[in-house]
Design a protein that fits this description.
- The protein is of the alpha/beta class.
- It has one domain: Rossmann fold.
- Helices cover 42% and strands 15% of the residues.
- The protein contains eight helices and seven strands, in the order βαβαβαβαβαβαααβ.
- It has a seven-stranded parallel beta sheet, with helices on both faces.
- Helix 5 links the parallel strand 5 and strand 6.
- Helix 1 crosses helix 8, helix 3 packs parallel to helix 4 and helix 4 packs parallel to helix 5.
- Bound molecules: NADPH dihydro-nicotinamide-adenine-dinucleotide phosphate.
- The site of NADPH dihydro-nicotinamide-adenine-dinucleotide phosphate (NDP) has 30 residues, from helix 1 and strand 2.
Length: 257
């Protein structure tokens, strides 16, 4: 028999922050591999645009307005997602905001600190909890994947709040991997390098930044959202069934050089 573990037909994925950037790359790839997909974001226009694009795959697509930092909103959106798509096999807690705004850690306000933690870490907690409850109750397993960052493991001056959320996310998924292995629920973190998205637009289009960073990326280009499709399909697939608790650095070699 042919080896076709990457066919995701019959599976369902949720991608928070799936209306653009890395999340859209994930959503598009898993849909193209056969999964029905839900994307969540706060911007209704961006959601509609992404939904129309994803629908071209022929899969069922649901786009919901949901602020992942709002616990009740996450639980409500999760219920609506299940109602529309029936099950959840892959949950990608990808929604995130950058940490811009602090000139120095010395002047970092607690308001800014909590604003970033609310979306990047609380949001992943609410999302994973809803998905894990469903996966355990339904049986049959699944995968929880957090989009962390190299900021979790490298020094990130003036971004201690952002770095802390991403380090926290890695610690969270490793714990989830152990707690839920008996339910065949796996958990992983993806650590992107420098990816050209709305989040990094100000940096990737800045001459000084470009000239300093690009020589340190062996692949000699910024990453793109669709560079994350392959890992997403793999992690949702049966090929990954014995693989849990891992971190995947996808950075064109930046962290090696
Ligand atoms: P984008 O800014 O392109 O996308 C961010 C996504 O998150 C959007 O879909 C946005 O939708 C959504 N989002 C933001 N806040 C919320 C919220 N409160 N509730 C629900 N959705 C929200 O960024 P990227 O694609 O670059 O980022 C995706 C993830 O990758 C983030 O977690 C980021 O930290 C991480 N990352 C990115 C890197 C890069 O170089 N780009 C490097 C390392 C990590 P909406 O506006 O509709 O709310």
């Amino acid at each position: 028999m042919a080896y076709r573990p990457f066919d995701l037909t019959g599976k369902v994925a949720l991608v928070t922050g799936g209306n653009r950037g890395i999340g859209f790359g994930i959503a598009q790839a898993v849909a193209e591999a056969g999964a029905d997909v839900a994307i969540w974001g706060t911007n209704a226009a961006k959601n509609a645009e992404a939904k129309a694009e994803l629908a071209k795959t022929g899969r069922k697509v649901v786009a919901l307005q949901c602020d992942v930092g709002d616990e009740a909103a996450v639980d409500a959106a999760f219920a609506r997602t299940l109602e529309a798509l029936g099950r959840m096999d892959g949950c990608f807690a990808n929604a995130g905001i950058g940490g811009g705004g602090a000139k120095s850690f010395l002047e970092m306000s607690s308001e800014l600190w909590h604003r970033v933690l609310r979306v990047n870490l609380d949001g992943a907690f609410y999302t994973f909890r809803a998905a894990a409850r469903h996966m355990v109750e339904r049986g049959g397993g699944g995968v929880l994947v957090g989009t962390a960052s190299l900021a979790a493991v490298e020094g990130s001056p003036r971004s201690e709040h952002y770095a802390a959320t991403k380090g926290g996310l890695i610690s969270m998924v490793r714990s989830l991997a152990v707690e839920f292995a008996r339910h065949n629920v796996r958990a992983h973190a993806i650590l992107p390098g420098w990816i050209e998205t709305d989040m990094t637009h100000r940096l990737t289009t800045n001459e000084t930044f470009h000239s300093k960073v690009m020589p340190r990326i062996p692949m000699r280009r910024w990453g793109k959202g669709d560079d994350f499709g392959g890992i997403a399909v793999y992690l949702m697939s049966s090929a990954a069934r014995y693989h849990t608790g891992d971190t995947f650095v996808i950075d064109g070699g930046y962290s090696l050089f």
